[in-house]
Each structure stands twice: as C-alpha cells, then as structure tokens.
Write a structure and sequence with these properties.
The protein has about 450 residues and is mainly beta. The protein has three domains: about 120 residues, Immunoglobulin-like (Sandwich); about 100 residues, Immunoglobulin-like; about 90 residues, Immunoglobulin-like (Sandwich), CATH 2.60.40. It is about 15% helix and about 45% strand. The chain is built from six helices and 25 strands. The strands form five sheets. Strands 1, 2, 3, 4, 5, 6 and 7 form a seven-stranded antiparallel beta sheet that branches.
C-alpha cells in the first residue's frame, strides 16, 4: 500500500541509514525512559483529571527514537508516516508499542475507512491490525462543533449479523478530552479472544456522548488481509529469584503481542503478584517490554499466569532472551488485608504497616497507602466475608497525593455480620530482586 509515498521515501533511505548514532547513549536513554514509563496492568488506576490510560505517553519521545534507531529505519519510516495523510494520528496512539509499530512497517495494518455521520458528528473506522489472538481498531471522531469532552459510552463488536465473538477481554480509551476544544479525536479499541479468530466480516456498534448530543453508530466492515499465524516457542526452563522458583512454559508470539506462560512453584514461600520488568532482549540489546497499556497479564491461578509482552513477531534476531530482575511479591500468609468492619481496624496487613487511616462508612471501606514513590496499581483483586464467600465489589477508586494514596472500595452488599472481611491483593509495593535470564533462541 502507499506505493507512491514509499517510492519517494526510498530515495532518501541510504543517507538516513548512514547517519552515525551513538547507540550506547541511546540505550541508556531508552532504559531511563522505560523506568520512567512503568505504568502498567489491566486494573491500573487513573490520576484525577488525567487523560485515559490508553494514551500513557511518558517517555514516548525516547521510546520513539530508540525504537526507530535500533531497527535502522528511523528517519525513513518517520518520513513514511509523515507523508501519509492520517497516519501520524495512528503513530501517536501506538508509538510506545514496538510490536504495533513493526506491524505498521511490515504492511500488516489494514485500511478500512468506513464512516457514518449523524447530526454533525462522524464516526470513522480508519483501519485495523488483527491476528489470531487480538484485534486493534483505529477510529476517528469528527464534530462540526468544537468539543472538550467526548465519551465512548458503549462499544460492541460482533461478526456480521450480530454473530457473537469469543472475547477474553477488551478495552477502549473512554473519555476523549481537549482543554481548548477540538473537532477531531482519534483513538483505538482493543479486543482479545479466547479462541483463534476466524471471522472476517464485522459489525461495530458504538454509542458516543458529546457535550450536547448522544449518537449511536452501526458500522460494517470486512478485513481481507491474511491473518499471520502465531509462532510457539517451547521453553520449559526455570529461574530462581530470592529462593522463589518460576518455570517458563511456552511463549506464543503473535503480531500484536507475546503471551508468556509461567508457573510458580507451589512450594514458594511468597505469592508472586506482578512480573514488572519481564522483557525480551535480542543479541544487540533491543528490548520488548511488557504491554504498557491495556491487559498485561491473565491470572490462571495463584501459581500460574500468562504475561503479555510487546511483540517481536516481525523481527528475526540471531539470539533472543527472556530477562527479569524484579517481581512484586508478598509472603503467602500476607496476601490478604483483613479488616474488622465492626471495630473499624486492620486485623492483618503485609509487613511494613504502610496502610493507615481506615474508614468504614456503611458500604464504603477506605484507607491510605504510604509509599516512597507513587504506586500506580489497583491493589485489590477481590473481597471475601468471614466465611470465604465473595462480596460484590462495585468499584475501587484511587487518588494520589504527596504523602499517600487514598484507596476506596464500594461494597454494596456489605453488612456487619460479614466481618472480618478479607481483601485479596493483586499488586503491592513489595519486591524480590535478582538476575533471571533464559535463552529462547
């Protein structure tokens, strides 16, 4: 696709590729950017008034430069994107995901350009990237009037004629904002599937709420490009970090992400919550980190999980390693926060006593968490009563302040007879560290 633009750019490629760049300095900058941009996980909170999580762009400039330099097509590809109308918006959305960027470069993005207009507001499906496991739909909203806020209230993807698809998860950006007001907004919808995607004809139903109107759209589109099949690497290798054993089972490499299957030794003394810095590294030091926004892991059980990394599908290194150095972990006996809602006090919490200022008001439970650095994770996975029965959790809120993070949990069915209640931890600011590295290619 885009043959004219590509031919034009090829005339410049040789001069761009011969630019002398100090790669070791760029590597340092990239790693610094990665450390600064560690905002992760599917239950990750949003700062008050911050833009939606789908556009977490901390250190994006560093990542953008580092990525293009490392695969030796930076200026050529940057120009390639610039001269193609509309593509610069797409790059802004995915510039911190190497897998999606490489999919674009390898012509795996499929243009759709299907629109529907209602009362001065137009919704356009610009294009998509799809594989067996996932689909990313890029869209644009245009309004005749400037808007400061547009909310995607509902989205439903089906096969043609409302044929159900087998989803495991999906995400959208939610609120689209502009302080000054804008007439054009771009974002993406991301879907993941339980079973391999076979459908090629789709319907997308969307409800959009603007400042003065709410519109519903129904768009039908067909994807014609062949789906690239996954590559599976059998690992069966074990890494030990501070006495905790982790067995890496397989790595399924899709164009949009890499799914790493891990099993923790049941004899481990600690519950391993989050593999923060698990990454792929090739022989030249190029790195594919965890998915920065969206679903970063699927927990199968306490001792088994699937961890999602950025994809190196279109990259063929001579050597490839899985590397990790830091894992969120707590002693298994401390994997729950226990609260006596009648006495309004903590019965148990992880070592360090960083949780304070407990509040129990009706069906609301709140407390403060004190950490040296801001901790951007929703820490609660579920809530149980004294008999081990699940209590409905209608939502968890987090607000960050200089000295603490305030956490609130709304439990509509909470009664005094349920006390004490147990809050299961999904994340927590406690870590084990070490050197873990296995060669997978």
């Amino acid at each position: 696709m885009f043959e004219k633009e590509e031919e034009k750019l090829k005339n410049h490629k040789n001069s761009y590729d011969n630019i002398n760049i100090p790669l070791e300095l760029l590597d340092d900058a990239i790693m610094a950017g990665f450390q600064k941009a560690k905002v992760e996980e599917q239950r990750k909170p949003r700062k008050p008034h911050a833009k939606k999580w789908m556009l977490s762009l901390a250190a994006a400039a560093v990542l953008f430069i580092g990525f293009f330099t490392s695969i030796r097509l930076s200026p050529a590809f940057a120009d390639y994107i610039t001269v193609i109308p509309g593509m610069e918006k797409l790059v802004e959305l995915i510039r911190n995901d190497k897998g999606k960027m490489q999919a674009i470069h390898n012509d795996y993005y499929e243009k759709v350009n299907v629109s529907e207009e209602k009362n001065g507001m137009t919704f356009t499906v610009d294009g998509a990237i799809v594989d067996e496991d996932s689909m990313v739909i890029f869209y644009t909203l245009k309004s005749e009037e400037k808007q400061k806020e547009i909310n995607i209230e509902e989205m439903q993807l089906t096969g043609l004629n409302s044929k159900k698809l087998d989803f495991s998860s999906f995400s959208n950006g939610g609120m689209l904002t502009s302080e000054e007001g804008n007439t054009t907004f771009s974002d993406m919808l991301e879907y993941h599937f339980q079973t391999s995607l076979k459908e090629r004809n789709f319907e997308l139903k969307v409800r959009v709420k603007g400042e003065r109107q709410t519109e519903e759209y129904l768009l039908q589109f067909e994807l014609k490009k062949d789906i690239q099949m996954k590559k599976t690497i059998k690992l069966d290798k074990t890494v030990t970090i501070e006495g905790q054993k982790i067995r890496f089972v397989t790595a399924d490499i899709y164009p949009l992400r890499v799914a790493v299957h891990v099993k923790m030794d049941p004899k481990n003394t600690k519950k391993l919550l989050d593999f923060e810095d698990l990454r792929l590294v090739d022989e030249q030091g190029q790195t594919w980190n965890k998915i920065a926004n969206g679903v970063t892991a699927s927990r199968i059980s306490d001792d088994e999980a699937i961890i999602y990394l950025q994809s190196n599908y279109f990259n063929e290194p001579k050597e490839l390693y899985l590397v990790l150095n830091k894992i969120q972990a707590v002693v298994k006996e401390d994997a729950y926060i226990v609260i006596d809602t009648q006495k309004k006090q903590f019965v148990k919490q992880p070592k360090g006593n960083i949780l304070t200022d407990l509040i129990v008001e009706g069906t609301h439970v709140g407390f403060k968490m004190h950490t040296k650095d801001e901790f951007n994770y929703h820490i609660i996975a579920g809530v149980k009563d004294k008999n081990g029965n699940e209590i409905e959790n209608a939502g968890t809120s987090m607000s960050h302040y200089e000295d603490a993070t305030e956490i609130g949990i709304h439990l509509p069915g909470l009664t005094s007879e349920m006390s004490p209640i147990s809050l299961e931890l999904s994340f927590f600011p406690a870590w084990i560290e070490g050197e873990g590295k296995i060669r997978i290619k």
